[in-house]
Amino acid sequence: MKEVKRLELVVESGVSERFFDALDSLGLSYRTVIPDIYGKGRRGARGGDPFSTFDNTYILVAVSPDRLGGVVETLRPVLDLVGGMCLISDAQSVSD
């Protein structure tokens, strides 16, 4: 097994491409994306309504610990501009 950082993003679906572009620019093109999730945060309830224009998208990425600083530096301005949640935790990857 290999030590990795688990990077989880919850962002409004309408701006998710900005995060995909940022991750791609870092060479982090492997990710899991779950569209149309819902929850409640500082901006109130989001998603869960079939007619909502404020659905959220969940993005999961495994990041090498030595690359984490650069990833955070790249994502923070996007998060500051459009909002969202980013969580980072320790994880173990079974595959290389």
**Number of continuous helical runs:** 2
Instruction: Report strand order across the widest sheet.
Output: 2-5-1-6
Taking Cα atoms only, what radius of gyration do you get, to the nearest Å?
14 Å
Low-confidence stretches: none
Instruction: Please state roughly what percent of the residues sit in beta strands, choosing from under 5%, 5-15%, 15-25%, 25-35%, 35-45% or over 45%.
Output: 35-45%
Tally the beta strands. Answer: 6
Q: What is the helix fraction of residues, given as a range?
A: 25-40%
**What spatial form do the alpha-carbon principal axes imply?**
globular
Question: Describe it for me?
Answer:
By secondary structure, the protein is α+β, with helices and mostly antiparallel strands. Helices cover 26% and strands 42% of the residues. The protein has helices spanning 16-25, 68-82; strands spanning 2-12, 32-37, 39-41, 44-46, 56-63, 85-93. A 4-stranded antiparallel sheet has the order 2-5-1-6, with helices on one face. The protein has a two-stranded antiparallel sheet with strand order 3-4. A hairpin with a 2-residue loop joins strand 3 and strand 4. Helix 1 (16-25) packs antiparallel against helix 2 (68-82). The longest helix is centred in the last third of the chain and has 15 residues, at 68-82. The radius of gyration is 14 Å and the shape is globular. The model has no long low-confidence stretch (mean pLDDT 89).
Outline the fold blueprint.
Blueprint: E1 2-12, H1 16-25, E2 32-37, E3 39-41, E4 44-46, E5 56-63, H2 68-82, E6 85-93
Antiparallel strand pairs: 1-5, 1-6, 2-5, 3-4
Helix pairs in contact: 1-2
